[in-house]
Each structure stands twice: as C-alpha cells, then as structure tokens.
C-alpha cells in the first residue's frame, strides 16, 4: 500500500533527526551537551505545579474548546501590561504554539496557497504548513545584514495571487534577530496594500538583550483585522512539555471560524491550562531575570566563537539561538562526526544543521544553529569542545 504524497514530502526535523547518533554516543559512555534543541534547563516556575495541586476537582473534565477562562483572562492581562487590549473572545487556547500556527494556516489558506516566510525560519513551519498543503515562499535574509528583512520592493516581488499571508517569529528562531520598528511597519504596509494576513509568532517576546525590546505586532495600529498572534508558555516560562499556546486576533470572523477547529479537536489539557494561567501572572521581574541569564549565556557563546578560526557569526539580540557559519563543507556531516568519532575527556556536543531552516536549496549547508539553553559553565565547556572538534575535523 502506498502512503500519501503529502506525508512523504514532509521533511524530518533537523532538530531531532540526528537524535539516534546522540543516543548511540551516550550508550558508548559519552556525555552529550545538547545545543540542538530549544529546551531550556531553567527550572519551570513553581507556581505552575502549585496551581495544579491547588485545583479542587474530583473529575478531570473536558475543558472548553476555546480554553479555560482563567487562562484566557491571564493572557488578556499579560498583553494589557503593554497597553495591548484583547477581549476573551479574541483568544483561543491551543496545544502549544505549534497548533496555533497550524490553525492559522488552515483558516487563511486553501490547499496550494502560499505564505511568505523570512528564512532561515523555525524548521517546523515546514511541517505545520505542509500537513495542510500550504506552500512556504522564502524571503531570504542574510547574516551580513544581521538577518534583517530585505527591501519592501523585494518582498512585494514575491507576492502572487496565491499569497495569503506573512509568517515570522520575533525574536527570530533560529537567528535571534529582533525586527526593528521600521521592519514591522513595512510588514504592516505590505499586508494592508495586498490584503494579506500577518501571523506573528511571539513565543520569545520578552527575551530581548542589550536594552532592546521585542515589540508585539499588536502595538501597530490599523492592522487589527490582518493580525494573528501566536503565543506559548514553552520558552518564556521554560514549560515546553506543558504544550500550552494561544492564537490571538481582533478579527472576529477569523476567531469565530477558528473555534470550529478547536471544537473538532475537543479541547486542550485542563490541568496544564490551570498551571499556565499562573505563569502568565508572574511579575515582569521574572522575565527580566530570565532575560539577564540568557544574555550572559549568549555573551559566553559569542565571545568563544569569535576566537575560533573560520567561524562567522552575528551577535543575536533575542531568543536563545544563533546561526553559525562553520569552516566545513557540510555542517550535518560534521555534527554526526562529532557524535560518532570525537570527544574531549568523554564529552561531546550536538548542534542542529541549519540547512533545514532554509527553504531555498543550497543555503545553510555549512551553517549550524546553536541553542544556548545550558548553564554558563556547560556552555563554556561546549564551546571548547566545538573549537577542538573543528580543529581535529579539518586536520583529518
């Protein structure tokens, strides 16, 4: 029996597809520093479990398809801190930010339609769109430009009758780039002019360094009917396994129809929503503490990379990733070699090959994404292992 063309066309995740090599290395007795996946080591705030433990019920019932009111209200209050006003009917809770993006793609695109996406982009955008037969058209950004957007004219040249929207993350995964206000205003102009939706993936908002601010697209006036924001507790609150996200929009018709998708999958897990509500009510001081920690880790990694011959890297200003150009022909082969054949005192590292973060064939082949999600001491060790590994690999 033949499987569908759709499932066979989907790519394996570059973040996870090399996991068997890491598993084999661990079985051989090596310690592997995982810099390949955005799984923070920072403790999930205790309020998450405290709220769940305090939840008084004898039956774990279905939640509302839209989501638990206590969580929806907490998200409204979270945005209100930045003078962004959503009403409860503007929000639907999802199984992580992933489902929010999939729901958005289903709601605004027909099979075969297109979304413009700045590349390199979060590789799972391929999966979210591919599973509903939506095509990604890349807006290529370059390291020498800090992975900022090209001109308005260049972006408009990519628009076709099948283009339905622009999807991007800000701060960016995998680049760590924060869009400037003029870039966000340019996106708004393009969306209004060409009647496009904007899907703004804001799961890393709050993780901005060097005194910068990752502005929400919802702060821009006049695009209310165009704008879809996707949210998540995964990164900001180190709660990836909770799988709690949200889709937020002032477009009443859109949200009314997206609720149908929520009803079709019944609901999001009840207890995790109760815990997530407590996370969204944490004070801004929590976000500052986390931001300072990631900035310190970024500085360690960036400074170390600057000392490695042949490595090219732009200093990221947000999230907890950076894209690194390595002095190798094929980053994936190098990453596998590190896991199979190299260690320093029984320790090695795992990165993500960056080729899978591009839609344009041939780009990113000599690049890797580093997630600085380990403590500062471990990040220092990992960078020393990377330096030694590159030297050994190129001296074979």
From TrEMBL:
<keyword id="KW-0808">Transferase</keyword>
<dbReference type="GO" id="GO:0006520">
    <property type="term" value="P:amino acid metabolic process"/>
</dbReference>
<comment type="similarity">
    <text>Belongs to the class-I pyridoxal-phosphate-dependent aminotransferase family.</text>
</comment>
<dbReference type="InterPro" id="IPR015421">
    <property type="entry name" value="PyrdxlP-dep_Trfase_major"/>
</dbReference>
<dbReference type="InterPro" id="IPR015422">
    <property type="entry name" value="PyrdxlP-dep_Trfase_small"/>
</dbReference>
<dbReference type="Pfam" id="PF00155">
    <property type="entry name" value="Aminotran_1_2"/>
</dbReference>
<dbReference type="GO" id="GO:0008483">
    <property type="term" value="F:transaminase activity"/>
</dbReference>
<feature type="domain" description="Aminotransferase class I/classII large">
    <location>
        <begin position="31"/>
        <end position="382"/>
    </location>
</feature>
<dbReference type="GO" id="GO:0030170">
    <property type="term" value="F:pyridoxal phosphate binding"/>
</dbReference>
<dbReference type="InterPro" id="IPR004838">
    <property type="entry name" value="NHTrfase_class1_PyrdxlP-BS"/>
</dbReference>
<keyword id="KW-0032">Aminotransferase</keyword>
<dbReference type="InterPro" id="IPR015424">
    <property type="entry name" value="PyrdxlP-dep_Trfase"/>
</dbReference>
<keyword id="KW-0663">Pyridoxal phosphate</keyword>
<dbReference type="InterPro" id="IPR050596">
    <property type="entry name" value="AspAT/PAT-like"/>
</dbReference>
<protein>
    <recommendedName>
        <fullName>Aminotransferase</fullName>
        <ecNumber>2.6.1.-</ecNumber>
    </recommendedName>
</protein>
<dbReference type="InterPro" id="IPR004839">
    <property type="entry name" value="Aminotransferase_I/II_large"/>
</dbReference>
């Amino acid at each position: 029996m033949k499987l569908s063309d759709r499932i066979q066309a989907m790519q394996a995740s570059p973040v996870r597809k090399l996991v068997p090599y890491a598993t084999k290395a661990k079985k051989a007795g090596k310690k592997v520093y995982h810099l390949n996946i955005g799984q923070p080591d920072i403790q999930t705030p205790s309020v998450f479990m405290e709220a769940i433990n305090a939840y008084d019920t004898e039956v774990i019932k279905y939640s509302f398809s839209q989501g638990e009111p206590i969580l929806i209200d907490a998200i409204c209050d979270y945005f209100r801190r930045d003078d962004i006003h959503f009403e409860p009917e503007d929000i639907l809770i999802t199984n992580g930010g992933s489902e929010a993006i999939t729901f958005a793609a289903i709601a605004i695109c027909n099979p075969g339609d297109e979304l413009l996406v700045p590349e390199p982009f979060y590789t799972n955008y391929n999966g979210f769109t591919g599973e509903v037969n939506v095509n990604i058209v890349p807006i290529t950004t370059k390291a020498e430009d800090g992975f900022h957007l090209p001109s308005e004219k260049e972006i408009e040249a990519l628009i076709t009758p099948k283009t339905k929207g622009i999807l991007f993350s800000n701060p960016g995964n995998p680049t760590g780039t924060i869009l400037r206000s003029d870039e966000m205003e340019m996106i708004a102009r393009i969306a209004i002019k060409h009647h496009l939706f904007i899907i703004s993936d804001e799961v890393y908002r709050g993780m901005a360094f060097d005194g910068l601010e990752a502005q929400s697209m919802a702060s821009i006036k006049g695009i209310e009917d165009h704008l879809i924001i996707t949210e998540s507790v995964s990164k900001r609150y180190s709660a990836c396994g909770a799988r709690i996200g949200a889709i937020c929009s002032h477009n009443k018709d859109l949200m009314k129809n997206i609720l149908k998708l929520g009803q079709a999958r019944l609901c999001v897990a009840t207890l995790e929503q109760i815990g997530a509500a407590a996370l969204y009510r944490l004070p801004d001081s929590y976000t500052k503490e986390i931001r300072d920690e990631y900035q310190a880790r970024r500085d360690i990694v960036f400074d170390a990379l600057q000392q490695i011959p042949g490595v090219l890297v732009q200093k990221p200003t947000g999230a907890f990733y950076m894209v690194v150009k390595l002095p190798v022909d094929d980053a994936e082969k190098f990453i596998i070699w590190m896991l199979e054949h190299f260690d320093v005192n029984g320790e090695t590292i795992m990165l993500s090959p960056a080729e899978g973060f591009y839609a344009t064939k041939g780009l990113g082949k000599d690049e890797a994404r580093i997630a600085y999600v380990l403590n500062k001491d471990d990040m220092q060790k990992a960078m020393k292992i990377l330096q030694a590994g590159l030297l050994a690999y190129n001296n074979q």
